């Protein structure tokens, strides 16, 4: 699938979804979300299949195994590098028909009234910049050694 899929385009380095690559192999790509907002909260990762396929039900067994391992490593990496209150993982939405799983951190001190899906709405949450995000992504990448 080509440029008509935003995630396929992202894997080619094109479009608004392009963010720092944490890990990639022939089956999956793990990235940090792009910094398209003013100083977003760090620690929001995507695990995507390299192959264009729409849902978890359409994954091959090797893709499913790679996704499972990558999600686990991503969650551990976020836990170790950011020491969050919680790490969430979800497969949600249908806006982009290319398999992708969200793995994201909830910082300590996040008020209980802040939705689990929108920590950016908490005005006192930790924020990042492109300069600060680069070394974080390098540290996160180190957790995928030997994958």
Structural classification: alpha+beta
Element-by-element helix/strand order: HEEEHEEH
Estimate what percentage of residues fall within beta strands: 15-25%
How far apart, in Å, are the first and last alpha carbons? 26 Å
The helical percent reads 25-40%
Largest sheet: 5 strands, antiparallel
How many beta-strand elements?
A: 5
Overall mean pLDDT: 93
What is the C-alpha radius of gyration, as a whole number of Å? 15 Å
In which order are the strands of the major sheet placed? 1-2-3-5-4
Q: So what's the overall shape? A: globular
TL;DR of this structure?
Helix content is 28%, strand content 18%. The chain has helices spanning 6-11, 61-82, 130-142; strands spanning 21-24, 28-32, 44-49, 86-90, 100-106. Strands 1-2-3-5-4 form a 5-stranded antiparallel β-sheet.
Would you write up a description of this structure?
It contains 3 helices and 5 strands; from the N terminus they run αβββαββα. With 147 residues, the protein is α+β, with helices and mostly antiparallel strands. A hairpin with a 3-residue loop joins strand 1 (21-24) and strand 2 (28-32). Helix 2 (61-82) packs across helix 3. The longest helix has 22 residues, at 61-82. The chain is globular, with a radius of gyration of 15 Å. The two termini are 26 Å apart. The relative contact order is 0.20. The mean pLDDT is 93.
Top keywords for this entry?
single chain, 147 residues, alpha+beta, 5-stranded antiparallel β-sheet, 3 helices, 28% helix, 18% strand, globular
């Amino acid at each position: 699938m080509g440029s008509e899929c935003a995630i396929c385009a992202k894997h080619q380095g094109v479009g608004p979804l392009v963010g720092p690559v944490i890990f990639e192999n022939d089956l999956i790509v793990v990235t940090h979300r792009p910094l398209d907002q003013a100083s977003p909260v760090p620690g929001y990762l995507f695990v995507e299949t390299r192959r264009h396929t729409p849902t978890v039900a359409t994954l091959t067994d090797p893709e499913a195994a790679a996704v499972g391992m990558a999600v686990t490593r991503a969650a551990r990496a976020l836990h170790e590098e950011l020491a969050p209150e919680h790490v969430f993982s979800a497969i949600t939405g249908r806006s982009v028909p290319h398999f992708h799983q969200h793995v994201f951190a909830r910082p300590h001190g996040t008020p209980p009234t802040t939705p689990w899906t929108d920590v950016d709405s908490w005005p006192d949450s930790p924020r990042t910049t492109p300069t600060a995000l680069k070394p974080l992504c390098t540290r996160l990448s180190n957790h995928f050694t030997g994958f």
